[in-house]
Amino acid sequence: MAQKIVAGNWKMNLELNEAKDLIKGIKNSQDDVRVIVFPSSVFINVVAEGKNDNVEVGTQNFHTELKGAFTGELSISQLRSAGATVGLIGHSERRAFFSEGNDLIKIKVNAAVANNFDFIFCCGEPLMIREAGKELEFIKMQLEESLFHLTKEQMMGKVIAYEPVWAIGTGMTASSDQAERMHRAIRTWIHERYDHETAQNVSILYGGSCNQDNAKELFSCPNVDGGLIGGASLKGEAFCTIIDSY
Ligand code: PEP
């Protein structure tokens, strides 16, 4: 069975004391739900020290090399030593603002796999693609170009977040029908590329204006295994309500 996950992407928000306060209030009382928060890298250490049990800390980004002359960058081994256990790859904001294309994202996937570092692979279509009715082809291409080269063994237990770009930070949540249709398609493609066992073991999260009011409905879709939450993860109470939506 796919692991249920609720993850909070804090993006470039919060200062040190705010991050410390927020993490104190995040509690996970659901034994079968994995909870991860992604603070700014500079706070990973203190957030990892201040977190409650059953909460993990992740990194919003990492460099593909482990060390060397890459001024301003952070490696998987550095981030791991600070307390990060998982990284985001392919978030639409990194694709849009930092020119991360499918090729670089594939290299990041390979770096994470080679270093035994968990990741959440983000994919999502822009509004224009959705309006043209081409969202299924678009997402399939993102997966094929950056993720589906992994072997079955590597793919087992991986995590994909479907985050339609038009829903991120806009308040325009995908309907549960729209989310379920895409998640079902993603699981079908994993089945076709790998097999039934792999498809059932990959977690597929929804992201895009998911909040305490709509999480229950979204999470009740058969192929939605949890959420990647932006704005609503910055409020402890709202984020805990989302965790408890299971
Ligand atoms: C995100 O950036 O991953 C996200 C889902 O943001 P929001 O929940 O604010 O739409």
Taking pLDDT < 50 over at least 5 consecutive residues as the criterion, the unreliable ranges are none
Helical stretch count? 12
* Broad CATH class: Alpha Beta
Approximate shape:
globular
Number of self-contained structural domains: 1
Strand order of the largest sheet: 1-2-3-4-5-6-7-8
Largest β sheet strand count, sense and barrel closure: 8 strands, parallel, barrel
N to C succession of SSEs: EHEHEHEHHEHHHEHHEHEH
Q: Into which percentage range does the β-strand content fall?
A: 15-25%
Mean pLDDT: 97
Using brief descriptors, characterize the structure shown.
alpha/beta, TIM Barrel, 8 strands, binds phosphoenolpyruvate
